[in-house]
Amino acid sequence: MTHPSVVVIGGANLDLVGRPLHALVAGTSNPGRIRVSPGGVGRNVAENLGRLGAPTLLLSAVGDDATGRHILEVTEALGVDVSRVLITSKHPSAIYLAVTDEKGNLALSVDHTEIMDLVTPKYIYAHRRWITGADMLVIDANLSPAAMKSAFSIASKAEVPVCVDPVSVALAPRLNPYLSQLAVLLPNADEAEALCGLPAADRFEATAAAQRLVSIGVDTAIITLAERGLVYATSEESGHVPAMDIEVIDSTGAGDALTGAVVFGLVNGFSVSEAVRLGVSAAALTLTCTGTVCPDLSLEALYDRLII
């Protein structure tokens, strides 16, 4: 592979997603459908970038087991360089278990991801030459605080822009020391509130929250609002992009598709507003697919759905 334009550091796991046929009933078995596919925020973002044609290197860890081999084989086949992923017998490969409601929206999830503890500062430092040569570094907040510090230090010294997905409200506070170093931040409403202290329940509150994040030092803040679309802000502009009117098949991975497409746009010279619209198109396409990453994802497919 040529030198990657994007390096992604984050989780790589197996997704088990169950969707009931009818309204979800707690405390009992619900008839439905279960799908199994490679997942993980970092891996998903990398796969989206690979499908769009961006040279991408994934830094992560998988177990020395059948699950880990499957994750790597599928991801590599879709255009991602996985040659530097750590393979270990110390932990099993990570697994993410999710249950949606009958409409495909997440109801609850459990993740088993201790293996990410092996993505250490030493591991990241050993791969610094790929990071320093990249056009952008993408991190998900599954990284330990020590590993995150190492990644930001390497990127800062080399002046490589950093994009971060906070992943969850619980993990978002890990980003507080680095907000002034972020080129792109993509929280949902709850994660944004955890980071800046302002509510983001609607487009107007979210715009104010995005502008607060920019005032703290984030270059581009993009706050997702589910069916209400998203808002974005930079030091020069802000805007709202509505969600597309679609039937949701599976909500898993839509945010990762958004991140991947936004990063693709930015490293290829798109304006922020263009990159954000490309991201909304990718998220919408993913919502209509059964799977964590839409198998029909391509630049042509995104332009077909693009909101002008």
Polypeptide structure, described:
This protein is α/β, with parallel strands linked by helices. It has a single domain (6-160, 244-305), classed as Ribokinase (UDP-N-acetylmuramoyl-L-alanine:D-glutamate ligase, 3-Layer(aba) Sandwich). Helices cover 35% and strands 23% of the residues. It has a nine-stranded mixed β-sheet, with helices on both faces. Helix 5 (145-158) links the parallel strand 10 and strand 11 (162-165). Helix 9 (272-287) crosses helix 10. The longest helix has 16 residues, at 272-287. The radius of gyration is 18 Å and the shape is globular. The chain starts with 5 loop residues before the first strand and ends with a helix. The relative contact order is 0.13.
Please name the defining characteristics of this protein:
single chain, 308 residues, alpha/beta, UDP-N-acetylmuramoyl-L-alanine:D-glutamate ligase, 10 helices
